[in-house]
Amino acid sequence: MAYSTVQRGSGPWHILPSNVVLRTQRVTAFSSAVDGQYRAVEGGRPNTKDYWMFFPNTTSYSLYFKYGDSFISPFHDIPMFADETNRTYNMVVEVRRWTNAKMEIATKEPLNPIRQDIKKGKLRYVHNCFPHHGYIWNYGAIPQTWEDPSFVDTNTNCKGDNDPIDICEIGYRVANRGDVIQVKILGVMALVDEGETDWKLLAIDVNDPLAKDLNDVDDIEKHMPGMLKATHEWFRIYKIPDGKPENQFAFNGEAKNREFAEKIIAETHEHWKALVQRNEDARTLEGSRAAERHKPHQLVIFLFRTHRTVV
């Protein structure tokens, strides 16, 4: 498989030796609504500060849009619904189950690649919370949603955390980072994380063997006993090893049902639409605008000119 090597220099872009790798041809295993038509492309080295992932689209996706060979933003360009009639949603997988690296959609980066979170110059990982290893579900976000940091949620009395709404996929398959999967919403927990509203959706991959049996939050305990308790406990304690206090919850930690969860999703979708309309943060929205302005080969150059040097 051929690799291209790209580095930002003081002058024009140029090809360099293989110490810097842009894997424009490497495609991770993938799942999506229609025959895996979204593909995730990696760049840099995993577990380094320069690791990133972005999404080129090569064919039309489901019934919503067609990008041809254009690059897209997983935050703005992938539709929230996979199938609105059947109430299934698209989920962008940021973190594989049983892994520790804190990967997330970079909402302020051009094209919004998946990056590992950095704090005080160090890559972030979640600690193992006994008896679990890393994240206990496939973890990610629903595109075209946004928890508005200026909006005080009446359920939590806290403002949003400035990110797409988080989602925990509780099925059996260990997904791949960058997968776009169709999920059925089952419920939601209202986490209050360091004074911010941080909703945690609970969902099941529609292709999971248990999907036909799981339709609401009460079905989780029936068919996956212990999952709700483990999820609550994990979110409560996972920051304690970093010297932080345990997280708090609204509703005394109770997981609310599917109807309530979908109302929260709809609310965050409206906040996302308002963000796009206001165009308050040009960098956040640059991914979508760039996809309209540039051809794919130009987008690669555009991406790296607006990022830090890839090393």
UniProtKB/TrEMBL annotation:
InterPro entries, alphabetized: Pyrophosphatase (IPR008162), Pyrophosphatase_sf (IPR036649)
Cellular-component GO terms for this entry: cytoplasm
EC top class, as a word: hydrolase
GO molecular function: inorganic diphosphate phosphatase activity; magnesium ion binding
UniProt KW keywords: Cytoplasm, Hydrolase, Magnesium, Metal-binding
Superkingdom of source: Eukaryota
EC number: 3.6.1.1
Gene3D superfamilies listed in its UniProt record: Inorganic pyrophosphatase (3.90.80.10)
PROSITE patterns (alphabetical): PPASE (PS00387)
CDD domains: pyrophosphatase
Cofactor: Mg(2+)
UniProt-annotated location(s): Cytoplasm
SUPFAM superfamilies assigned to the protein according to its UniProt record, in alphabetical order: Inorganic pyrophosphatase (SSF50324)
GO biological process, alphabetically ordered: phosphate-containing compound metabolic process
Family: Belongs to the PPase family.
Protein name per UniProt: Inorganic pyrophosphatase
Source organism of this protein record: Ornithodoros erraticus (European soft tick)
Organismal lineage: Eukaryota, Metazoa, Ecdysozoa, Arthropoda, Chelicerata
